[in-house]
Amino acid sequence: MNKILFETIWANIVAFSRRVAEGVTRLTTWQFILLSLLALIAAAVLGDITRPASRPTPPISVTIHKSAPEASDGTAASATPEAPRAPGDPLENAIRKKILKEIRKGIDSATSATDAANSIKKEILKEVQKEIDSESAASDPDSASAKKPKTSVDVRIAGLNPEDLAGRRDRGLPLAQIVFFLIIVLFAVRITTRSRQRAEARVQSAEASAELESLRRQVSEAQLQTLQAQVEPHFLFNTLAAVEHLTETDPPRATIMMQHLIAFLRGSLPNMREQNTSLGREVDLCQSYLAIMQIRMEDRLTVSIDVPESLRGLSFPPMMLQSLVENSIKHGLEPKPEGGAIALSARLQDGRLRVTVADTGLGIAENAPQGIGMSNIRDRLKRLYGNSAALVLAPNAPAGAHITIEIPHVPAPASDTGR
Amino acid sequence: MSQRPRAILADDERLMREQLRARLQEAWPELELVGEARNGEEALAMVSKLRPDLAFLDIRMPGQTGLEVARTIAGCCHIVFVTAYEAHAIEAFEQGAIDYLLKPVDNARLALTITRLKERLAAGHNEENGERALKRIETMLSKLASDGPQHPAAPYLRWIQAGVGSQVFLFPVEEVFYIQAQDKYTVIVTAAGESLVRKPIREFAEALDPEVFWQIHRSTIVNSHFIAAFKRDGEHAEVTLRGRSEKLEVSRSFAGRFRQM
């Protein structure tokens, strides 16, 4: 039970100090300094106000013992305590007044409680002696001072212990000191909390920027992929027109064409989930596209595909090969009146996968702009593989273009193989 | 017009020609289809030889595009474009086309086109314009016969064909850091390395876009996109490139370019 209680309290303390630390840390330096100054001033003012009130007159009782003067013959007379005087006695009153004055004076001037007590006592004794002397002189005027027995006085002042006095003296003052101490502590807390927060913020921002960078990379890859995966409307509507015509004139061929179109569209739709598919899948997609183009272009297009079965499972980025094949048809073979051939091949060479699209089309003219498709592939290869991938262009003999994508040899994840 | 109207159609795909022919015969039985062309050049020759009243032209065709054909034959016959994708509609009408059909051709839409064409044919056409157009067609055909198919030319060199070892590659000019004269050859420096071209640097200086490729020396042309810094030390001046260690000398006569930087 006790342990639980202690833990609860401790937890509360910790929570409170954490809140204080947070609050202190949230302030700006100037706010902190201003608040500290205000707190110090408030403490000083409060101390001043409370000081007089908190120092009531000490409950002092005074007992005066008169002892007989030392006999001239040298025998010590024993002190005979005199009965306490009745209150209201003029001597008693005068003495009390003096005592209070001295106490006040002593407290103000002394440096420590013990000093104060001692000096006050000394002063009081002096004063009391004076008082008694003057009284006895007054009550017995004719007697000569020389033969007058000297009355020694012992004053006992109750309630004037050094400890007591110390408590009285410090009661108003320590407020300012406590506040000052607190300010120092809070300032230290503030500095350490701040530097920790700053370090945390730095770590966080570093993590955030790394995350942002990777996110940005993913997004731009997705955008580039989408751009690459856009089905060209010209291709789509020409194909649909051909299918429409074939449904009237040659329904079995229309069905075949439709099936190729479906396979092509399914594979071409932007697939954000996977950055890599297998080479086999990409080749199949190209094959669907080329089959459609062959139906449309008839004897103007010859297709050959040479991709070894063993390489079909290798990892390959999506829609790149397709983009090269489309370029070959659109810019190389379709615009050439007699048409030509397209050859798709893949080889594993020196630990690199080289996939080539070669055509006998018009070729790349020296002043033909580098199409968006091409620069897009370059960007994507750089993003995906850094400098270990390349897009290599060369003229094909006797005519056309010979384009190769070279990437590091990476086996595809198991789920992608063989599809 | 008492005679039956005569038309040709042009499309590089046989299936498309067949489809259009079938649709036209069904919707407009009086129309006489006198020829079918497989590309722009054949279309031009047919117009010149057969003098049809109408031409149905695919826009994307090998050799001359439908738009190029139309530009030449305008005034000689009425033109209708048939295309799969309406990317060129405005341009098509600028070439004097009467109508613009989208593939696959919709029967109702084709009927509207036929109505328009009949109105136009009833109004008759200007013989003088026709004669002028025929001359244009003949000039174009003879030009095509001598030059072969033409590419829509970009004003500057975009690809550099260069040998590396025994192989020849094509480098997009964007990837070229700089080129430098070396005896009879020119060295092309790209991220893939150095390659040699048997062509004087002067020819590159003329063919490359001067906004991007700056000549900094009699024997050096640099891709300004890669310039990192220009330094001058008394008489000597040089540039450094991003990601490259070489310092390329800038001769006095070419240093003026950097003064504004």
Notes on the protein architecture:
The complex is a heterodimer of chains A (419) and B (261). Chain A has 419 residues and is of the alpha+beta class. Chain A has three domains: 1-54 and 171-227, no CATH class; 60-68 and 82-160, no CATH class; 273-416, Heat Shock Protein 90, CATH 3.30.565. Chain A contains eleven helices and nine strands. Chain A has helices at residues 2-26, 29-53, 90-109, 113-139, 162-170, 174-229, 233-249, 251-268, 279-297, 320-333, 372-385; strands at residues 62-67, 152-157, 277-278, 301-306, 315-316, 340-349, 352-359, 390-395, 401-408. Chain B contains eight helices and 15 strands. Chain B has helices at residues 14-27, 40-50, 66-73, 89-94, 107-122, 127-147, 201-207, 256-259; strands at 6-10, 32-37, 54-58, 78-83, 99-102, 159-164, 167-172, 176-182, 185-190, 193-197, 213-217, 220-223, 227-233, 236-241, 247-250. A five-stranded parallel β-sheet of chain B has the order 2-1-3-4-5, with helices on both faces. A five-stranded antiparallel β-sheet of chain B has the order 10-9-8-12-11, with helices on one face. In chain B, helix 2 runs parallel beside helix 3 (66-73) and helix 2 (40-50) crosses helix 6.
